[in-house]
Amino acid sequence: MESHSLNDSRQEICWFCKKGRHSECMKRIPINVKTDGTHDCSFDTEMIPCTCTH
Q1: CA 12 → CA 37, 40, 42, 49, distances in Å?
Q2: Domain total for the chain?
Q3: CA–CA dist 42, 34 (Å, integer)
Q4: Please, where are the H alpha helices in the chain?
Q5: In which domain of life is the source organism classified (predicted)?
Q6: Which residue would you say has higher pLDDT here, 49 or 44?
Q7: In the predicted model, is pLDDT for residue 45 greater than 50?
Q8: Is 3 a member of any domain?
Q9: Whole domain around residue 30: which residue ranges?
Q10: Claim: this prediction has a pTM higher than 0.70
Q11: How many CB atoms lie within 10 A of CB 3?
Q12: Residue 32 lies in a domain
């Protein structure tokens, strides 16, 4: 069974490249980052580049 925890959210290769579908590469991967807001469940979406070398 695969883990989809937030600890894995910093992976720098997009889902398509992981599946070998490099022609559909997302180029930039959206990730959720916990913020220092007033609520423990506050998140911002950050975009990181896909680093696959396909």
Answers
A1: 25, 25, 22, 7
A2: 1
A3: 6
A4: 15-18
A5: Archaea
A6: 49
A7: yes
A8: no
A9: 9-49
A10: no
A11: 6
A12: yes
